[in-house]
Write a structure and sequence with these properties.
- This protein has helices at about 1-10, 20-30, 40-45, 55-60, 65-90, 155, 160-165, 175-190, 200-205, 205-215, 240-245, 310-315, 320-335, 345-370, 395-405, 415-445, and strands at about 95-105, 115-120, 125-135, 140-150, 195-200, 220-225, 230, 235-240, 255-260, 265-275, 280-290, 295-300.
- The strands form two sheets. Strands 1, 2, 3, 4, 5, 6, 9, 10, 11 and 12 form a ten-stranded mixed β-sheet that branches.
- It is an alpha+beta fold.
Length: about 450
């Protein structure tokens, strides 16, 4: 509760009216509740409103600075995780992990919607995509601290579509790599610093992003495709796959090391380290021990910073927390359940979800040492289980459940019945208008 109150107080300056700020706090409370679905109707019902009007106004028309609110969430999450690391005296690596996540959408009216590859669906589907930055404190915690929705060029250049989707005037098309530059620039402007920046092939293959990092003295470990071209010290230029075949084909060139500790133990891979023509750039190759699948990481470490294989492997293994942030945000806070269609509304829902996640992530980080009673891990495959396994530390989902119970307020009398009747009446009205639209279309076809 203390972390929630602290963040809400920091967000106060982003709102023109006190009532809007208070409703944003109730919106966040609804996000951490035990509701199965979180959209305008269910959130309004949860917070005690009689209609969804105030919730829809908060996302669409109310006056508040969404960009400033995201900055407050970013500073709160980073400061909270840094304080937890200081209390536990664990320096560890600080990683900025870039990735995008999607939300399936129907129709063509939603801002940014397009048939595209959706990682959440594992195939090409109709939906929207948003680039995120996660602040990862090694062995402490992680939270989302930045987001930018990707908008297709055809939406920006079409005046009718742009107006209908609520795109801001003067918005320019940005690739996902360029959106990552914008997010990282905001983080740097807020005084945040990362030991290493990480990302998958979408970001590793973006030349502009790599140049941006190098200009700012930022070390990075970015995944690249097997066809990514590198320059070798010999002067030859070849793809990553060719370099591995030439220089790291034998098992004696690979070293088995852990990429870090996961929930099921150490994550072991075989690693190879290939030098390039630049003394500050290297190719780090990861090989799966069972399948033999290769993953390529293009690495840059500026002059004066620590350059070791161990450090780069640790950084490469710290990209996965952003995926966990997506999982938590969707499963427990409704990141992908927003039914808004306009650009501003989608951004505001995203910011409020990030705020709810940050509160729970910072709280969990501070409570880790006090709630971790696990028995020591096994040392041999045949070791007998302990009589008492203890308990893992409080996780973000468990902190969210505790916060939901603490924020639960009794509803007014007949509140559930009122909403039951409101939904049925609204759906009847919508059905009538849909049927009238169908009749108009049918008459036009006949005539």
């Amino acid at each position: 509760m203390r972390a929630r109150a602290e963040l809400l107080e920091a967000l106060r300056s982003c709102f023109v009216r006190t009532q809007t700020w208070q409703h944003a706090g109730r919106y966040m409370s609804a996000l951490v509740s035990q509701m199965p679905k979180r959209n305008g109707w269910t959130i309004a019902e949860q917070v005690g409103d009689v209609t969804p009007d105030r919730t829809q106004r908060l996302l669409n028309r109310a006056v508040w600075d969404t960009t400033a609110a995201m900055g407050q969430v970013r500073r709160f999450a980073a400061a909270g995780l840094d304080a937890a690391a200081s209390r536990r005296r664990r320096r560890g690596l600080v990683v900025g992990a870039l990735d995008e996540t999607g939300q399936a959408k129907q129709g063509v009216a939603t801002c940014g919607v397009k048939r595209q590859y959706m990682g959440c669906a594992g195939r090409v589907a109709n939906g929207i995509n948003t680039v995120h930055l996660s602040y990862v404190r090694e062995k402490v915690g992680h939270a989302l601290i930045g987001a930018r929705q990707w908008i297709p060029a055809e939406h920006i250049t079409d005046p009718q579509a742009s107006t209908g989707m609520g795109l801001p005037p003067g918005l320019e098309f940005r690739t996902k790599g360029q959106l990552a530059i914008d997010i990282c620039a905001d983080a740097y402007a807020d005084g945040l610093a990362f030991d290493v920046a990480c990302g998958d092939e979408v970001y590793g293959n973006c030349t502009q992003l790599r140049e941006f990092f190098e200009t700012h003295g930022q070390a990075y470990v970015l995944r690249v495709a097997s066809t990514f071209m590198i320059n070798l010290p010999s002067g030859d230029r070849m793809t990553c796959a060719q370099a591995v075949s030439l220089l790291a084909a034998g098992t004696h060139r690979r070293e088995v090391r852990s990429a870090g500790t996961g929930s099921k133990g150490q994550r072991w891979y075989a690693w190879a380290w290939i030098a390039t023509a630049s003394p500050r750039h290297h190719l780090l190759v990861r090989r799966h021990l069972r399948s033999g699948e290769l993953a390529f990481h293009y690495c840059h470490v500026p002059e004066g910073q620590t350059l070791t294989k161990t450090r780069l492997i640790r950084a490469a293994g710290l990209r996965w927390p952003v995926e966990e942030d997506f999982e938590f945000s969707k499963d427990h806070f409704g990141l992908d359940q927003c039914q808004a269609r306009l650009y501003t509304a989608i951004a505001r829902h995203t910011v409020l979800v990030m705020a709810a996640l940050a509160v729970c992530a910072v709280t969990a980080a501070h409570l880790t040492d006090r709630t971790d009673t696990q028995a020591p891990p096994p040392h041999t495959p045949d070791q007998q289980p302990p009589p008492e396994p203890g308990m893992i530390p409080l996780t973000v989902p468990e902190v969210k459940r505790l916060l939901a119970n603490a924020l639960h307020h009794p509803r007014p009398p007949h509140h559930d019945t009122h909403w039951l009747n409101w939904r049925r009446r609204h759906q009847a009205r919508a059905r009538w208008f849909h049927q009238r639209t169908r009749l108009n279309r049918d008459y036009a076809l006949v005539s």
